[in-house]
Amino acid sequence: MAAIALAALSPLRLAAANLAAPTGEAILVVSGQITATNVGDTAQFDQAMLEQLGAVTIETTTIWTEGPQTFTGVPLARLLSEVGASGGTVNAIAINDYAVDIPSEDWVETGPIVSYLHNGDAMSVRDKGPLWIIYPYDSNADYQTEVIYSRSIWQLDRIVVKD
Questions:
Q1: pTM for this structure?
Q2: Tell me, what CATH number does 97's domain have?
Q3: Nearest-5° angle of CA 56, CA 60, CA 63?
Q4: Rounded to whole angstroms, what are the CA distances from 22 to 35, 55, 133?
Q5: How many CB atoms sit inside 10 A of residue 109's CB?
Q6: Contact between 99 and 116 (Cβ < 8 Å)
Q7: Which positions make up the signal peptide (predicted)?
């Protein structure tokens, strides 16, 4: 009976336990305090897997671009739920090993997304891709701070969930 109650409270975590392996090139590796893995002790995602998590598109201005831009990706909160993240912080790491910490307070459905499209196009490494954590800067003045801008890591390829 307790297992049924737990299953009712955690449907995403149970679904996450069955995380499929990527069939294409992995563009994101999540590790650390996660319960769902598909390659060793990591959860690896190709582009199609990220798209299957449910895309959202936000329009916002950024300090790095001119005028309003559209970004499409998966909410960071949904991605972390999918892998059963249980830590209080994620360490987001770029291809060049630049890293930032993003606290769990930011892991909200209307918060940052892991963007894989910019203005409808895939992003090359030269254009801050393949993944860029984008906050909906224009929707909330709290997202227009140096701290938040510093968390907006581009060329993202790894996330480590930690305490």
A1: 0.88
A2: 3.90.420.10
A3: 130
A4: 17, 18, 21
A5: 11
A6: no
A7: 1-20
Domain holding 134, by residue range, is: 2-162
Lookup: tokens for 64: 């790095």
- Residue 14: band (very low, low, confident or very high) from pLDDT cuts 50, 70, 90: very low
Q: How far is CA 47 from CA 27, 78, 106, 131, in A?
A: 7, 15, 23, 10
The pair of three-digit structure tokens given for residue 108, joined into one six-digit string:
């909200």
Beta pairing class for 113-118 and 132-134: antiparallel
Average pLDDT rounded to a whole number, residues 76-101: 97
- Domains identified in the chain, total number: 1
Q: What's residue 79's pLDDT?
A: 98
Is omega for the bond preceding 130 within 30 degrees of 0, making it cis?
A: yes
